[in-house]
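Appendix B. One record, verbatim.
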Amino acid sequence: MMLRLVGRFLLIALNLCSLMKSFVSQQDQVSSVSGAEGQRSDEKPSKTQQLRKVFKEYGAVGVSFHIGISLISLGMFYLAISSGLDVTALLCKLGFSESVVQSRMAAGTSTFVLAYAVHKLFAPLRISITLVSVPLIVRHLRKTGLFRAGPNRP
């Protein structure tokens, strides 16, 4: 029962990842057209650069959210692997290449190391969730008065 729930959660997470990627790419297209007097940037910033920008702009809220989602992710993967989920077959079924999966999962590794390796494979998903969620959370906190705008913000 638990393995089915974890499997379903992973499928939902992957669908969410594809939705987030399309949302982020639409936002990037809008910002590149409207920014810098209509000059279009051919070079798209990497997810890491985007994450650093979010951390710089939103501060503790961005860092706290990303650390929280990372800890939840690591805990879920540890629980799934310690429950006996066949991670290799699941990741291959989800579209990861077998060479990447096998390189991350050597025979005889501990449960935590295996959970951490799978957790690292899903880093783009966590970063995408952070990039989309933190501005929405900060906007909500500002509306409720729990978070003030910075000194250079209107």
